[in-house]
């Protein structure tokens, strides 16, 4: 099922999704738009952050369940994505199910993440930020804090898995608009491209 007015940005670490989400804040009306991200700022998301820092050691399967639990609350909880979208707001999320299908498939195989994520609604628009693991690593290395998934081999595997799942969704023809972006283009150029696509949305007309 496609959830109207829902937009997702996806890509490996360092692809620049957060930068683009922030730039959209200058373009869209604050009353009509909700900006969000996964892991969330809810207690489930905060717990996931400690897992990502390596402070909590969990099995890959438990981690996959936790990402799905955090998403369940993000989508269906009070003030969540479904509630906002159906009340006529535009919701833009930095990461969603595609992150679990890419990252957790590497750590615990494809089956569990697929099972845990198959029933979540799909966004109306999915922007996939493509970048080589080498280029993304260069960006990540400039940051102060690194997380457990920000390693070369893991990034390479994740990048391959992302390509695989995005291509799979393209063949499914779900009605979700999939836009592949070259994440190494300039910040301004990328922002223009995203903006041009979003202007097609009925919610942003008139
Ligand atoms: P993110 O907040 O984008 O990274 P940063 O802390 O650098 O801003 O995402 C945190 C990490 O969580 C990222 O490595 C991807 C990972 N992740 C998963 O493994 N599965 C998921 O379902 C989600 C949403 C994120």
Automatic annotation (TrEMBL):
Keyword Ion transport tagged: no
EC number: 2.7.4.9
PROSITE patterns to which the protein is assigned, alphabetical: THYMIDYLATE_KINASE (PS01331)
UniProt GO molecular function: ATP binding; dTMP kinase activity
UniProt keyword annotations, A-Z: ATP-binding, Kinase, Nucleotide biosynthesis, Nucleotide-binding, Transferase
A single BP term in Gene Ontology: dUDP biosynthetic process
An annotated GO cellular component: cytosol
Regions that span the bilayer: none
Catalytic reaction annotation: dTMP + ATP = dTDP + ADP
Domain Thymidylate kinase-like intervals: 9-194
Task performed by this protein: Phosphorylation of dTMP to form dTDP in both de novo and salvage pathways of dTTP synthesis.
Similarity annotation: Belongs to the thymidylate kinase family.
Protein name: Thymidylate kinase
Organism for this UniProt entry: Candidatus Treponema excrementipullorum
């Amino acid at each position: 099922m496609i959830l109207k007015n829902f937009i997702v940005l996806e890509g490996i670490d360092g692809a620049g999704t957060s930068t683009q989400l922030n730039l959209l804040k200058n373009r869209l009306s604050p009353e009509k738009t909700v900006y969000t991200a996964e892991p969330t700022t809810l207690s489930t998301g905060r717990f996931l952050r400690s897992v990502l820092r390596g402070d909590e050691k969990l099995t890959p399967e438990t981690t996959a369940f936790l990402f799905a639990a955090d998403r369940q609350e993000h989508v269906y909880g009070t003030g969540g994505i479904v509630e906002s979208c159906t009340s006529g707001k535009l919701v833009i999320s930095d990461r969603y199910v595609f992150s679990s299908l890419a990252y957790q498939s590497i750590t615990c195989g494809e089956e569990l993440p697929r099972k845990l994520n198959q029933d979540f609604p799909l966004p109306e628009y999915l922007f996939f930020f493509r970048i080589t693991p080498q280029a993304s690593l260069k960006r990540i290395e400039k940051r102060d804090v690194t997380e457990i998934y920000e390693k070369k081999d893991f990034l390479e595997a994740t990048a391959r898995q992302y390509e695989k799942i995005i291509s799979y969704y393209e063949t499914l023809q779900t009605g979700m608009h999939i836009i592949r972006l070259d994440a190494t283009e300039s910040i301004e150029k990328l922002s223009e491209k995203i903006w041009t696509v979003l202007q097609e949305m009925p919610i942003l007309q008139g």
